[in-house]
Amino acid sequence: MDIKNIKAPLLIVLLMMFFIIIGCSKKTEETITEENEKEDEVTEETKEDTTTSENSVLNIAIDTTPPTLDQPISTSASTRDVSRLIYESLVTTDADFKPIPMLAESIDISDDNKVYTFHLRKGIKFHNGEEMIAEDVIASMKRWEEKTALSGEIFNGATWEEQDEYTVVLTLTNASPLTLDTIATSKHAPAIMPKEIVESAPAEGVNEYIGTGPYKLTEWKEDQYIHFTKNEDYLTLETETNGLGGKKEALIEDIYFRLVPDSSTRLAGILSGEYDFAYGIPQDNYDQLINSDSVEPVLVPGSNTIIKFNNVEGIVSDFEFREIINTALDYEQIMMAAFASEEFYELDSGYMHKDVTAWASQAGSEYHNINDPEKAKQMLEDYGYNGEEVVIMTTRDFQWMYNIGVAVDEQLKRLGIQSRLDVYDYPTFSDTANKTDLWDIEIQGATMVSTPPQLITLSTTWSGGVNDPHIPESLKAMETASDLEDAYQIWDELQQYVWEEHLPIINLGHSYALYGINKKVQGIEMSTVGPVLWNATVSE
Fold first, then answer.
1. Residue 206 has pLDDT above 60, yes or no
2. Which of 27, 71, 338, 508 could in theory staple to 189 by disulfide, Cβ–Cβ 3.0 to 4.6 A?
């Protein structure tokens, strides 16, 4: 074939293919452009949906007023939840309750585990505009040691010293595997405050609530509300949010904690939209929240539900009498009376919450929920009970506490014990708890902690609590153990001991708290140590 004869037809074919390709390319380019424009539109719509207004407000209905916002002096869950907007610590806990840096940028630990060097983050400002430096940290940590029993044996004889403005050195006399866990606690938290506020604080607590957190206190109108506003100078970490650490953004301008003691009023308010978030919704109303178009029900593992004995005076200060009561009680019936359905509670003998997996233990479970009233009646007869009155103290401000009080009172009466139920408002209840001549049994909840030595239920400083030297000695041994494995072994043996030999409380189990959240609110992280409000948004 002559090559010359195919050049012209080939050229025509090539030209046709070229124009087809150009046309297709142009069409493809137009399609991509159109799709990109659509994506841009979607992105803008998404931004509009998720970006909060400058005047966004979160209204929270709480069931009780915090006794104080001064973290180091209070074990109250309401103090913990509300004050964490204001305060931060050197370290905090991640989602697995392990310590991670917060106001410390990094931490160096000596080979003998006795010297901790905290390198502070620079540029962190208090709400009064002053920069946080080493002297503030040292003053705050020393005050925390003085005010809380949680510091225990670990910090006995410890020193806090300034190496430079941004470096603080903690030197311990005894090495402990629990040092950072203890500093990271969210109960009795070692909040960092300005030195001048710490040093001028009277015994009953600081006069000003100033911290480094993403929100600052604007107004506390007693018995009405606590108002927080966004801290415009807050310097967040850029690491991923993790538990109580990592990135914190104040995306809501104003947060109000509104005191609403009546549970039916809280329920009506969350359903009507008056409140965006509500604490302590009665479990009986769970179905109402489920069927609501505007509200999402949230169940969160809550506190240990406990029956606290007066271990220092009165008839129940006798371990043998406490054994009789424990043998008789039907835990299941008591918890059902409190929480209405099995989905709202779980029987558990563990003093440490099961979610704190490093310390969860079932030691002593054979003494949990014995539920043998006939045996208990025989024990009571053998004891020689003479009709001494047993006073049970509770409050109506928390319905579950009242219901447990009623259930325990009824079961003791059936056993043949002369019991009396004293019911107080919560502030009076808290005050009366410190007067051990006025009660024998107290209905209580114990908030989650990250290590056993932090348990208020085993503290000798808790009014009417532990009255056995073996318990604080064992907790001290935990704190100075060679490693975590040895510390856990001590803990496991101690939990067996408290069930078998002392019984300062009856740990019924764990409850699940019911909250209501308006569906326009996004990003509230619900945890076993209370709701986390930073990074949350409220849509228009």
1. yes
2. 71
